[in-house]
Amino acid sequence: MRVDFYQLTRDPAEAVVPLIARNTLSAGERLLVVSDDEAQLTRIGDALWSRTPESFLAHGRAGERDAARQPVLLASDLDSGNGARFVVLADGQWREPEGFSRAFLLFTGATIEDARRLWTEIGRREGLERHFWKQEGGKWRESA
Predict the structure, then answer these.
(1) What is the pLDDT of residue 85?
(2) Strands (DSSP E) found in 17-138
(3) Lowest mean pLDDT among 53-57, 79-83, 92-96, 129-133
(4) Which comes out higher in pLDDT, residue 52 or 114?
(5) Quick check: 7 and 133 in contact, CB under 8 A?
(6) 20 to 30 A from 37, CA-CA: which of 12, 44, 46, 140?
(7) pLDDT at res. 79
């Protein structure tokens, strides 16, 4: 599994998740977005809406009618039910994403120490590939 670490220094999760969702859907995949913070999930859901129909990203909430059909599903845990193979851990809290092929861990300065420990731990585990992303001049760039 590939794990992408996204250090949020400029933009909040609700600005980053739609970018990840758009790229995920373009790759023909489904996405699960996980957060224990209900208010954060609401902000992310709002960000997935847009003023123009061509940039709207279809999504829903776990537990709602037709949740299993949603290409992007917002949930408080990893039991998605939408068949997603990609997962965004929007609240910076690591959960073992078994059964997923790619995980995106979004973290801020408040959770940077946890992210550093996890980076080291994942580096020791077989079958996990890690990547680190940070913003430079408003664009996301992969860093060493």
Answers:
(1) 97
(2) 31-34, 60-61, 72-75, 86-89, 102-107, 129-136
(3) 53-57
(4) 114
(5) yes
(6) 140
(7) 86
Amino acid at 66: D
Tokens of 80: 């998605």
Cα separation of the two ends of the chain: 19
The whole-number pLDDT of residue 53 equals 56
Q: Which domains does the chain have, with CATH numbers?
A: 2-143 (3.40.50.10110)
Collect all residues with Cβ–Cβ distance below 8 Å to 35 and sequence separation of at least 6: 13, 41, 44, 74, 76, 89, 90, 91
DSSP class of residue 106?
Answer: E
- Closest Cα partner for 68 from 79, 57, 77? 79
Q: How many CB atoms lie within 10 A of CB 38?
A: 10
Q: Half-sphere exposure (CA, 13 Å, Cβ side) for 77?
A: 3
Rounded to an integer, what distance in angstroms lies between the CA atom of residue 17 and that of residue 11?
A: 10
Q: CA 46, CA 34: separation in Å to the nearest integer?
A: 15
The whole-number pLDDT of residue 138 equals 81
Please, which pLDDT band fits residue 80 given cuts at 50, 70 and 90? confident
Name the nearest CA neighbour of 44 among 52, 32, 30, 28. 32
